[in-house]
Protein 1
Amino acid sequence: MLMPFDLLLPLGGLLFLLPLNPLLSSVAASAWVMAQLVLAPKQKRWALWPLAMVILLMARTWWLNEMPHPASSQDGLLLVTSLLAATGISQARWPWLLRFSLLPLPLLITQITAKPWTPNPLVGANQAAYLLGLLLIIAIAWCWQRAAPLAVLSAILALLMVWQTSSRAALLSSVLALAFVYLRERAKEASLLPNLFILIALAIAGLAGKQLLRPSSTGIPGLNPSSDMGRLAIGQCYFNLPFSGNNRLLHGVGFERPKEFCHQIINGGIADHAHNLYLQLWANAGLLGLIGLGLLITLLLNSWRQSEGLLEPLPRRVGQAALAYTLLQSFFDVSLIHWPITQVFTGILLAIPLSVNGSVTTPDRS
């Protein structure tokens, strides 16, 4: 069942998506992490209580969003701390926690406007869409498990909201992540090809519908030359930074000087980040940063191999899709590292396979 402080997560999501000061969402998200660390199972406290000390020491940094932006070492620290904190979530608690995280969706109905919809102007459309993409994954997985009225309503609302933000990264990554999990399950049942053809047909129909509703100037659905060429240009600049001398190949240029390097005009604005999380880490932290990311991804993949059969369908599908979503979306943007609430939500969902322990019985995999 839920812990009382679990309501901090949907509260944080709501404060982030409403036109309010987003710092309020950082307080709620960080407070959830703190409570989860302090109330960790006894066998985990030797590691998680020192992390609680780190949270307390850096509360001002996260609550007031004072780290260098759009990328900082503190972003990675909060993401990993959230992941480790969530390893203490019991298997009985996961379904409740996931479903309750969808509470912001019906409360945002009156806020929806025409495309491109920016739920919170102080946050930005892409950053809000990243979080909505995670909620879309949870809602679809819940509807997949059981087509209850609330599940169907949540899926419709989440899809509508992601669509209205016009965030191609969030929509494409969430759809591809869910398709990956669906096809993976069908492959185990020897029914991969028919379902693959069905998904391809749906994708073609969706792209055709998109072109009818909102035609692209190029005739290719989803292509925006002014934005895409700007992203490629600034991405190339960040790719070249580690080769610019001063041992930057090993440790990058650092996170503390975001205004000193690459800038690119995109759609009338100045972009100062790589629009690609992997290029951002490569530029800021060099080979060491990519090695660290590789270690984390390897840990998560190995954990899924060991724990997949021990998880209930809802957390299993959400966790696998969230991992695929994060890896895919990171190719298109760095919305994950703009605000603590997105780091906390991501860390929690990535921790699903790590929360399994030997006492869990094998559930019905239907």
Protein 2
Amino acid sequence: MPCVYITPEGLCDGKAPLSKNEHYLPRALGNFQNNEPLVDRICDSCQRVCSKLEDVFVHNSSEAFFREMVGRVGRKKHKGKSIFYEPTHGIPPLGVLGKYPGHDFEILWELVPDPANPGTRTCAPMSQLVLISKDGSNILQLPFRRGMWTAERIREIAKGRGVTGEQVMAIANSEEEFTEMKALTDALVPEGKERDVAPLVAGVEMDGEMRAPISEPYLRAVAKVGFHYFLKYFPHFTGLKPEFDKIKRYIYAGKAERGIVRPLNEPFLRDLQQKGARLNKWAHLLSAECTGSGIEARIQFFAGPEVDPIVWSVVFTETPSHHHQTTGHVFVYFDEALNGYDGVRGDLVPLPT
């Protein structure tokens, strides 16, 4: 069977070998016992196209933040990346905003290992420059990486955001960063007076807001997960017929004549319909079905004890299907990695309606 993306015309040329190890659920989310990859359905060339979408999915999304919360998932040999400082394919890094205790303005925070509780994460102020207008009405927070900023570039960004920047706050997490920040603040506010800000007391509670973009590459990655999951568990379908052209064009090139990926305002599981109901462990939920209404996959990433994330619907086709089938799986994280596995895959059994 050829690569599923050879149709419609203009996507895959069909020349690359078929992959023996396509992870429909991105491997960066963990290694799950009992899980099986998609074999001989996607070529290596198309897998590379999908991997760029997954790069955005795991580094510039709410899932990227949850990966940090869960910790230890993904390939350990791959180079690490700071989701709070580094952009991905031109998309700005994640922002976690919260007021600095004792002050009225917000700063950027990041998740770091908690030294008092091994294996858990806590919030700490990022290395950053905070520009504040004289009346305090406009604020600009800039993640700081050494060698990244010049005073001219900071002024340009501040002007575009309407921040005059009469006050500049520098938060450095190393002496080297402090030295470089000092040169920048002296250039930005040459007549400014320095004053110390009280250090953060460990264990203080605060309200914060995590801001993550829902970008086109992110939504295409969600569509890829749903479609490749469908190909894995619905072998009755080759995926080559015209009814799948729209979903494949969208994954490959971002082109869509209708909404492909849609948020649902309903729980994934019937057991979670009660307000405030949560899973007691972190998990990913995937399902797909063929019915008289068409073919659809549903996905919820990082459902767990602390959050109730978006349930995504991926609509392949709205044309009634003659083959009726429903399947679902849950990918549950262990409390601690076990024998090289981050969790285990289990079946979801549909209940009678």
